[in-house]
Amino acid sequence: MLRSPEEAGGSNRGATQTQSEVARPNELTLTALASVLAHTSPTEELISLLASEKESYGVAWLLLHFMKSKRITQFPLLNLDLSVYSLGPRKLRLFLASLPGGFEATESLTCGPAVCKEPVLSALVLALQRLKGLEAQKEGASGLKTLCLAKTMLKEHPANALLHSTPSSLENVDLSANCLRTSSLETLGYLISSKWLPSIISLDLSKNLLGPPGVSALSKGLASGPSLPLETLRLCGAQAKTEGIQALSEALKAKKTTRLRTLDLGHNYIWPVGLQHFADAAGEGALPELRVLILKQNALTLTNGTNPTETDYAPLTQLLASTDWPNLEELDLRICCVSSEGGQVCSQGIAGGKFPKLRILNLCHARVRGNGIVALGNALAEGKSPALQVLDTRADIFGEGFASLSQSLAKGKCPQIKILEINASTAHPGASVDEGVENLAGALRESQLPLLERLVLRAGLGLTEPAGGGPQAALGRGLGAGGLSCLQALVLVSKTQDEQGMWGLAEGLKAEGLPALRELQLTMFYHGGGGGSRALGRAVGSGNLPSLRLVSLTWMANQGFASLCDGILTPGAPRRLSERRVEVSIDLKGSTVEIPDQERDVALFGLAACIRSGAVPKLMSLMLAQDPRGLRVGPQAARAFGKSLTHPEAKLDSLRTLILTDGLFRGNTIEEQERGLTALLEGMAGGSGSLIAPLSLDIERHAHFASGVLGPVSAPQLAEVFKRGKVAGLSTLKADTSRVGSLGMQAICLALSCPNVTQIKRLHFSPIIDAPAAAAAPQTGVVQQAMLSMALGSGQMNGLEELYIAGPLLSEGTRLLLSALSSGAFRALRSLELIAIAQDEQNRVKLPGMLTEFVIAEKLPALTQLKITASRMNDEGVTTLTQGWTARPPPPLEQLKLTSTQITNEGAQTLVSFISSGRMPSLERLDLRMNQVDVANHQALSASLPLVTSFF
């Protein structure tokens, strides 16, 4: 391994050679290496990556040495990416000092979590301070323009030191998804107001819990400083609330940031009162050059933020219908409770020419229905938004609204549209979407949307399909008419009742009119099963879609799906899904009408044949029976499916999700259903292949069914699958082990401890034991918990990141579990959730003490989520917990959930006081729902935690 001079000198102090001799590589060796490297062109990305790892650091240093000595082509490293840097501060200092042209020549620096923690952070701060010192000596000495510290877990105080060290040359600063708080924003505001960042163009503070104080501190700096060239300001998820938005609006009125082009205020708890302040600022001309306005995930019209009957549309009307936005190109109102009245307000703005350059209008899940959609369709029909490229109206639209909207498209009033997303599925009695679908089919057929790149149409309900064809068939044929040469993604959700709709779609896909299509998602609620389905299968598997790379199929398990698989496997048909290794996902659901058992089985037999033949080697996801109806297949079909998964010809080296729900298997009793699971697992264990990709295996009990299908007979077979390495890439296991018994649990835990299971990251046992069984024989539950504890202590699961255990958990077993986790080996564990614990009085008393003994920063340094549900902790337990965490620092929790734990006002106040003391500085979310905290205390407690999202 090549080593830097620093490494060589430090590791050979006792050798006969002197340090200088070791540090200087043999000249002949240098010449030989240089002659080889002279014919290569090492990139900035490669050098950054080499310098980030211990094994390759010496190579990076050697490349820099050759460049500085001009043995190979010398060029300044303008862009450094240290996002995966994993070494110490000395290595970082040496690397930056060895750069050709020096660190001052670097224009862009990206850092990862390791760089933004001590002691490495100090090396970075010193390097930045050196740049700042050079600037003081000579104007323009630093070339650093972009600093990206996103997702680095940067804390408040380190951030302050770093910000004070930044050179004035910075133009783009990304501090998103960190742990910044008020003091960091005070520092940033001070630097802006003091002209230390005069060149700032882009500032991203998204996903930091700044709260009203933090946003106000930033706003103060923006208002009191010089005019800035700032073009992009992102504050998504900053929790500004009314006070923060008011402060920001006042800063905008100061008109020091009139060059803003992008403003992201999404997810900031903006209600009408706050929106009014922002509308006033916009009305005073504070944002004349704004091109992108993002207001998503705010209750813009709800006066109390939650009650849909208490509304105020005046601020929204002022903002959209009364204010001119001459340069606005994107308006994002996703999930904003805009509703039909708000949709009419938006339409007024469009019709009134307030958005002449609008390209993107996003009203996804904004509750715009009825009159709002009609008004939008009429406004577009007037041709006032000819530049519109993206229209997302994923809401429950139907009837006149959908017809009006689609008619404007059919008339060619929006020829520039590239992305069109419409949810026209409706369960309203008598509602129809036929006219809307026919209009859209006409627009496709007449090439009125020639630039369309993504089309999403969900019309599963409310769509009829008369014999001989109809809107579904017309839409399918319109797709292949030749007017969609740019289409890259097609998502269709449809319900058809005869073959014509399937034939129409098959004809459209085979017509060679979709040369650019890369993604195809089809969800079909189809009851037939003849030639149309087979033709569609041939179309999907043919070579008529040359760019296809992703196929997602959601289908009902019936003869129609079997015919689809048969079409994909048609003899002589080109196996394009296999040849091009197209990624495939399949979600198989139960039939919505009663069908014979044989037809249920034939669907799974068809899928097994498809897999076994190797026709879908890039199968990524298999979800079976995730609906209340269930597939209800027999043991023979289940065994055939299990065999196909590990068949040597299947070559499923990409399967990442396998969900086997309770409703997959047929039977009048749970024991009969278990026979199906046992047969499936036997089939898997018997194959000679293996699933090697990181796999999530889900055998949990789902809400639609009374109990889990995994039991004492099938549990040993599951263990055999693990032990034989049939799921070598297992990364997630979710299982309902309530019925497996002690022997079954022992088999599973021993298998999880074997060498063939080494990559597991997430483990869910829900529940670990049946409640009646635990009540009848308490020691059984303790034994099963002890077995799991032994598996955790085996060393095979030290990389575990998420553990979810549902009880009932008793005192002794809970202690064993927590003790195993606190061994010091689980330093990657991020989430711990315990459900239904402390059911006995002894555990109620001991649980808080266990948490403060085992769940602490020293033992679990990466734990960010702790969730305790359905326990009897009560106020006394909260006192014990907070006192213990005062003596021993708690983990760096971001989310703390103590729901249904019998906490009253007193306990809630104790916990809030503890959090306010600063002992949990990273906390973002506190959930105390389903407790005994009365309404009168909700607001007072929430107000005392301005930086924490609280639920009581």
Automatic annotation (TrEMBL):
Annotated keywords: GTPase activation, Leucine-rich repeat, Repeat
Highest taxon of the lineage: Eukaryota
Entry's Gene Ontology BP terms: nucleocytoplasmic transport
SMART domains: LRR_RI
GO molecular function terms attached to this record: GTPase activator activity; small GTPase binding
GO cellular component annotations of the record: cytosol; nucleus; perinuclear region of cytoplasm
Family annotation (SUPFAM superfamilies): RNI-like (SSF52047)
Region of interest (Disordered), residue spans: 1-22
PANTHER family: RAN GTPASE-ACTIVATING PROTEIN 1
UniProt name for this protein: Uncharacterized protein
